Amino acid sequence: MTQEELFKKLIAHCKEYGFVFPSSEIYDGLSAVYDYGQNGVELKNNIRRYWWEAMTRLHQNIVGIDAAIFMHPKTWVASGHVGAFNDPLIDNRDSKKRYRADVLVEDWAQKQEDKINKEVEKARKRFGDSFDEAMFRQTNPRVLEYQQRIDSALQRLNSALAEGRLADVKQLIEELEIACPISGTKNWTDVRQFNRMFETKLGSVSDDANSIYLRPETAQGIFVNYLNVQKTGRMKLPFGIAQVGKAFRNEIVARQFIFRMREFEQMEMQVFVRPGEEMQWYEYWKQFRLRWHVAMGFGADNYRFHKHEKLAHYANAASDIEFRFPFGFKEVEGIHSRTDFDLGNHQRESGRKLQYFDPDSGQSYVPYVVETSIGLDRTFLLVLSSAYCEEQLTKDDGSTDERVVLRIPPALAPVKLAVFPLLKKDGLPEAAQKIMDELKFDFACQYEEKDSIGKRYRRHDAIGTPFCITVDHQTLEDQTVTIRHRDTMAQERVPVSSLRSLLTEKVSLASLLRQI
Ligand code: ATP
């Protein structure tokens, strides 16, 4: 199965098992907007809690807030979003399709990259064991020519974008002879800037003064509240503020399911530090955040850091944590050292002092900020795409079967324990219900009595339930049940009285937090 096929199956699975639905589907959906179903919302809540507890409970100097989505419009002037949260747009006049001009050039560069890789593969076949790939890439004239074209095009694109020379971006697209993938023509409009913030009106009077934005990131709610928290919590530097909430971006190229959405959720933390100490905190948070990811158990080699070589003007260091999604290594989280850019700008724009009085040095200054910013929906996709597994099984009689199992870390699974009575009679449903009633205060449990036990196992494999127990006639005699493990499918007989401690050890959030 190719990665593309796997991804398609995952999307279908998400819908079939109540994880993710297209938004307003009965009206044919809304592009790049999704709803979470009955299992999706549980998984999402669990990921959110895993992040929240790891950031706040494991760090005494980090506290949370929940700021409003609407903020004073000047916030977005100070943050730079009004001036610079733009994408360069271009339309094809024949297909009437709209593209991001930079993405067109980047896709072109990817095609050249593919050509290089083909040359490499051809040469590998030709030279066999003696093939030296690095040497080939450095010396083969055709590869060098492709590479030179890629480098020069991307360099031209970046400098034209940085300096706002949109006519040059269009000229580059024409020179590279990029055609619209739909119409196949090169009949392009001019490139123009498009601000990705959603604008709406506050109050009943529709004039410009009431224009307001849906926040494109949660961070600004933290910056404008930093002194409130510092003073009321009597926080000393370094201290951090964490927040989870919705963000909205009018993405032009929305694709790859919930990877790029127009309404999504971010989990952000800004830590306020003494100027000059930011690098040590930047390094700490890079490592901590990576450990948080790796603790989920999807393989350390599926993650990598991508260091930003070209830094935004306000940052003095920035890295992404990239994960190997079915469509390649992509950003899931950013760790940025943002200097005093945000607080400094808010201080200027609001006219309010946002300085911290440092009791140790006796000085007042605007703190520096290191932030970690991760997409909740993107993490959800990371978990599901790694957990999704199709398995061929050989049954006792030699025949084969298959199952789809979601190997979600038990602490994050939507349902922790499924409780089945073997039959719908002889007092078994009542006995099963009694076990449920005892455990439901501590764990998400689900009771099921429909269909054969085998079918019930399959249904719970498909939503990632780590444990199923079956209540049978023996249970009534000796208070034991059969517990079945999701990953190994092994079954064992255990006393009902041991279930709570067994589950606590395996599925509690604490057990996952300890692994960070
Ligand atoms: P990208 O380059 O993918 O657009 P970004 O660099 O603009 O992302 P940030 O502004 O740093 O992203 O946002 C932090 C995190 O928020 C990202 O790492 C990602 O996980 C998440 N995120 C950003 N945009 C979206 C989106 N449109 N849909 C879902 N998640 C998003």
Give a written overview of the molecule.
This protein is an alpha+beta fold. It folds into three domains: 1-71 and 196-407, BirA Bifunctional Protein, domain 2 (2-Layer Sandwich), CATH 3.30.930.10; 86-195, Herpes Virus-1; 410-513, Rossmann fold. 39% of the residues lie in helices and 24% in strands. It is built from 18 helices and 23 strands. The chain starts with a helix and ends with a helix.
Features:
24% strand, Rossmann fold, binds adenosine-5'-triphosphate, 516 residues, alpha+beta, 7-stranded mixed sheet, BirA Bifunctional Protein, domain 2, Herpes Virus-1, 3 domains, 5-stranded mixed sheet
Write the layout of secondary structure elements.
Elements: H1 3-16, E1 20-22, E2 34-36, H2 38-57, E3 62-64, H3 74-78, H4 81-84, E4 86-91, E5 98-100, H5 101-127, H6 133-139, H7 141-162, H8 166-175, E6 192-195, E7 199-201, E8 211-213, H9 219-223, H10 226-232, E9 239-248, E10 263-273, H11 278-294, E11 303-307, E12 317-325, E13 328-337, H12 341-350, E14 356-358, E15 363-365, E16 368-375, H13 376-387, E17 388-394, E18 400-406, E19 417-421, H14 428-439, E20 445-447, H15 453-463, E21 467-471, H16 473-478, E22 480-485, E23 491-495, H17 499-507, H18 509-513
Parallel strand pairs: 3-9, 19-20, 19-21
Antiparallel strand pairs: 1-2, 4-5, 4-6, 7-8, 9-10, 10-16, 11-12, 12-13, 13-16, 14-15, 17-18, 21-22, 22-23
Helix pairs in contact: 2-13, 5-7, 5-8, 7-8
The protein binds adenosine-5'-triphosphate (ATP).
